[in-house]
């Protein structure tokens, strides 16, 4: 019996988008009839996926791209589920990509380490899907465990050196100048 280590999974209606950490493929499966799932298509990625998000007919994937020797995000047109189409790829100035979240034309990509964006959440403008551009970064005070975008608000769960985890709410209405606006101590047990 063989198991597959899935890097990420996201649902859109009755369709599941699953990225494998090993083979780097994006599998698109129709689950309209859960007793008879149907593989609609496979889309090859250049590296094992670390995160996936969907907005409208666009799918965003973060992965560590050996071709760039850097992490990257890829934008894929999924308007035809049987034939997903490449739109663009953007290398990131970081040592490793992590999970991502999208809201409107803003993509938040967790960066695990690297030069300017060490342990940061990169804020990427995807209004032009052919030219995603990093507009800013939020640098938490600790290790990133989870992040989610909702409108112009970024919610980050991070652990600090005191052993506590914190939920920090960040205003990203100006992506070049993200500003924390609230924080709650979630207690011990993270990290």
Question: How would you explain this protein's 3D organization?
Answer:
The strands form four sheets. The protein has a four-stranded antiparallel beta sheet with strand order 1-2-3-4, with no helix packed on it. A four-stranded antiparallel beta sheet has the order 5-6-7-8, with no helix packed on it. It has a four-stranded antiparallel beta sheet with strand order 9-10-11-12, with no helix packed on it. It is globular, with a radius of gyration of 17 Å. 37% of the residues are buried. The chain has 191 residues and is mostly beta strands. Strand 15 and strand 16 form a beta hairpin. 0% of the residues lie in helices and 61% in strands.
Provide the helix percentage.
Answer: under 10%
Spatial extent as radius of gyration: 17 Å
Number of helices: 0
Distance between the termini: 32 Å
State the main characteristics.
191 residues; mainly beta; 4-stranded antiparallel β-sheet; globular; disordered N terminus
């Amino acid at each position: 019996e063989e198991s597959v280590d899935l890097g990420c999974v996201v649902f859109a209606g009755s369709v599941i988008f699953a990225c494998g950490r090993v083979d780097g493929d994006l599998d698109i499966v129709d689950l309209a009839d859960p007793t008879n799932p149907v593989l609609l298509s496979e889309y090859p990625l250049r590296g094992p996926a670390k995160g996936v998000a969907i907005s409208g007919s666009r799918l965003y994937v973060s992965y560590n791209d050996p071709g760039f020797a850097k992490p990257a995000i890829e934008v894929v047109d999924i308007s035809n589920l049987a034939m997903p189409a490449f739109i663009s790829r953007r290398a990131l100035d970081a040592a490793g990509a992590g999970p991502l979240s999208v809201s409107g034309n803003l993509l938040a990509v967790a960066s695990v380490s690297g030069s300017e964006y060490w342990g940061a959440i990169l804020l990427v403008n995807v209004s032009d899907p052919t030219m995603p551009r990093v507009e800013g970064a939020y640098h938490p005070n600790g290790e990133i465990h989870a992040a989610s975008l909702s409108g112009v608000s970024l919610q980050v769960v991070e652990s600090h050196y005191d052993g506590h985890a914190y939920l920090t709410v960040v205003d990203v209405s100006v992506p070049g100048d993200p500003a924390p606006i609230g924080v709650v101590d979630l207690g011990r047990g993270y990290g």
